[in-house]
Every structure is written in structure tokens, then in C-alpha cells.
Amino acid sequence: MEFALSEDQRLLQDSLKGVLAGAASLDQVRKIAVGDGAAISALDAALAEFGLASLLVPEDAGGLGLGLLDACLVQEALGYHIAPSRFLANALAATALTDFPDLLTLIAAGESKFGLALTELVSRRDGAGLTAEKGKLSGKSLLAISVDGATHLLVAETGGQLHVVEAGPDTVPMQTIDRSRTFHEVKLAGAKSLAALKADERFLAVARLLVAADTLGAAQAMIDKAVAYAAERQQFGRVIGSFQAVKHMCAEMAAKLEPGRALIWHAAHALDIGDAEGPVMANLAKSYLAEAGTFIARTSTEVHGGMGFTDLVGLHYWYKRIGVNRQLFGSPEEARESAAELQGLLA
């Protein structure tokens, strides 16, 4: 048995990286980070033309019908280029709405664009929370993502139920350290639930797995940048990459990251085939990449020395993306606790 990507999977990821190299270059990300509408529109158009929205939608609903491993490869590429994208939101909507073919068809056609207000799945914050009564939702959700330009929102109410509602105008931007993506406070006042379903363990596992894949891509980019910098920066008449201490730092980063890649591939495959081990491995992947990504972000910055803190190099975009991913859909501690519960190790 060969444990490797297929030729089609490698082509998918390489083709997407080629698109992102232009549409999500560091210069473009800088423009996106300050709200440049033209840069945002150009990236959205490039990704729409690539057909990402339909990737996880079944073929009978007009989608590509690909699997979670393919979705993880896409998310890894997006993380590598710190590209803001609705892919995560649409992918989770397609994962949840398997019993709602009409909505799936709209996602595949690009007519429905989803945002996510799922904070209630993993945390409770003072003054926030959504409640459902007689098919209508009211309340407030914090740190919703991909709300800009969304036609629909996938929201979680306090009881753990998921609902689809039409996106409304009552949103307020929330600033986080990650400027490569936008977060919002969403207020609902009697919004009609267009679809209701239970958020099972698989749904949260998929969410955490895709975030782990995003961190994998961002961390790999930071390693690549550190190695490239070490190969050209000179001190005492020698490139710093020739110093043993710097070699050790780069090697340790690579060694830390590689098990995370294996965890993601294994978890995605297990979830695709319905193996009970899938949700466990997805939670462990989220936990591991959160910790390894933090280490790599710090170490890569150290390899760059003082230059690592400048906007000229731009490492902070990757550093902060990894930092927010660490907490998104649950901290590494919460993910480990979920894995323990799924294995019956905790009540």
C-alpha cells in the first residue's frame, strides 16, 4: 500500500498554489489586510474561477464530490499563502447540509456564499449566545468568520443545534491580531431558520481538521522562509545557514511539522471512509498542529533575527494566522479533551 497523494491530488494543490502565488502574494495580502476592495475582489474572482466552492458538494448536487483529504490540501495551500477565503465556510456548510440538496446545489453554483457563526459550539462568552424558538433565532454570536459578502450563515445556538439563516446587515467588525481574515459580531433578531440539524462529533472534527490543515500550510511557509533567509543572510563572512545552531533550528522545525502532516492525512482518510477513529485523529491533529505551529512561528522569527519583526519580511501575517488558528473552534486543550472523551477516557 502506498501512503502518498495521488497524481490528481498533487495537481490540485500545485494548480491552486499557482493561482495563489499571484492573487495572494505578500503585496496583495498587505492590501487585503487594510481593506483594499480591488485586491479582495481579485482574489475572490480567482478562487471562484478555480471552483473551490463545489469541492465537497456531491456530484448529484452539481459539485465535484471530492473528499476531506482533498479539502485539507486546498486549506493547506490557502494557509501557505495566508489567503483569506470563504472555502472553510462553504466546506463546513457542505459537510453539514448533506440532507438539504437544494442548499448544496446553490453552494456548488456559487449562488449561496456561507459565513460561520459557530462560537457557541466550543465556548460561552458573557453577553453572547444564540437561542432558537419556534424556528426563529435571536441573540448575538462573536468572532463569526467569512461574513463579508455572505448570503447565508451557518450558526450554532446555545443548545448545540446548527441552523442556516439568511445573512443580514446587523454585523459589527471585530478586530483580532490576524489581519488576513475578517471577524464579525453577528446579531440576530427573530431570523428564520431555513434548515436545522444537530452538530455531531464529526462536524466539529471536520472544522478542527481544516483549521489544522491551514496551520500546516502557514507553518510550512514559515519554515521555507527561514531556510531561504538562512541560505542568503551573511555574518562573519559566512551564510548563517552554515552555523550549526541555525541548522539545528531549521531541522527541529521540519521535524516538528512532519508528524502533523501524517495526522491530517490519516484523520481525513478515516473521516472519508467513516472510520470511528476519524474524529479522534482530527482532534489530535488540531491539538498537535496548534502546538507545533506556535513553536515553528516563534523559531522561524528567531532565525530571521531582527528582520523577523519587520513588515518588510511580513512574517507577522503567518505568525498571527497561526495564533488565531490555535484558538479557532477550540484550543489545543479542548481538542485533546474531545479526543479523550471520544475514546472513553473521560466521562
3D architecture notes:
The protein has helices spanning 7-23, 26-33, 37-50, 68-80, 87-96, 101-108, 201-232, 244-272, 277-303, 315-327, 332-342, and strands spanning 114-117, 129-133, 136-145, 152-156, 161-166, 171-174, 183-192, 195-198, 234-235, 238-239. Helix 4 runs parallel beside helix 7 (201-232). 48% of the residues are buried. The protein folds into three domains: 1-87 and 103-111, Acyl-CoA dehydrogenase/oxidase, N-terminal domain (Butyryl-Coa Dehydrogenase, subunit A, domain 1, Orthogonal Bundle); 113-199, Butyryl-CoA Dehydrogenase, subunit A, domain 2 (Beta Barrel), CATH 2.40.110.10; 201-342, Up-down Bundle (Butyryl-CoA Dehydrogenase, subunit A, domain 3), CATH 1.20.140. The longest helix has 32 residues, at 201-232. By secondary structure, it is α+β, with helices and mostly antiparallel strands. The protein contains eleven helices and ten strands. Strand 6 (171-174) and strand 7 (183-192) form a beta hairpin.
Strand order, biggest sheet?
1-4-5-8
**How many discrete structural domains?**
3
Report the major sheet: 4 strands, mixed
CATH architecture descriptor of the largest domain: Up-down Bundle
Principal-axes geometry comes out as globular
Radius of gyration: 20 Å
Strand-pairing-aware structural class: alpha+beta
